[in-house]
Design goal:
By secondary structure, the protein is mostly helical. The protein has helices at about 5-15, 15-25, 40-50, 60-65, 70-75, 80-90, 95-125, 130-155, 165-180. About 70% of the residues lie in helices and about 0% in strands. α7 packs antiparallel against α8 (about 130-155).
Length: about 180
């Protein structure tokens, strides 16, 4: 078994250091070089905003939310793969990193804008359950989810090209052929 690379991998994985190394390597998606854990920052604020009208106790957490860069997030993280995530981020293609940072900047703007609108509504009218607050939270959640989907696509697939569903592909092929016939 000593000459078998698979055996040595299995032995390495069985040790605490080996398991820690596997977890560290697993947080970086090989398709993109990005770690999905970073998006949890945005998933959390979206969930809090959407739940605020029914859970007013979330107001303080929402009002204290601040954007954090990818590098800051992993520099202060306790995740076993934080160093791998930072190293992989530094090695990203500059154009791809710029695309990702652009999407993150859009997420930051929208999240900060939502927090400002929620703060203003809360300060002017108190409470978190009004119809106006419900509308603010619903619109903000929808807007954030739209951009979060783009960020998720970048992390999971390494591209901003939207994934075409089977139905969209069938429609494109069918309608594309029909147009050529006409």
């Amino acid at each position: 078994m000593g000459d078998n690379p698979a055996g040595s991998f299995g032995e390495r994985a069985a040790t605490p250091d080996g398991l820690r190394q596997q977890r560290a390597e697993a947080i970086v998606n090989p398709a993109s070089g990005l770690a999905n854990d970073y998006l949890n920052l945005f998933n959390e604020i979206v969930m809090m905003i959407e739940q605020l009208p029914s859970m007013p106790e979330l107001i303080d957490d929402i009002l204290h939310w601040r954007p954090v860069s990818y590098q800051e997030y992993f520099a202060s993280s306790v995740l076993p793969g934080r160093a791998s995530a930072l190293e992989a981020y530094g090695a990203l293609d500059a154009s791809f990193r710029k695309d990702f940072e652009g999407v993150v900047a859009d997420l930051d703007r929208r999240a900060v804008g939502a927090v400002v609108a929620i703060r203003r509504q809360h300060k002017m009218h108190g409470g978190c359950t009004s119809t106006a607050m419900q509308e603010i939270c619903a619109r903000a959640g929808e807007a954030l989810r739209e951009v979060l989907l783009k960020a998720t696509d970048l992390v999971n697939h390494g591209t901003r090209i939207p994934r075409e569903s089977e139905q969209e592909r069938a429609d494109r092929l069918l309608y594309g052929k029909m147009r050529r016939v006409s």
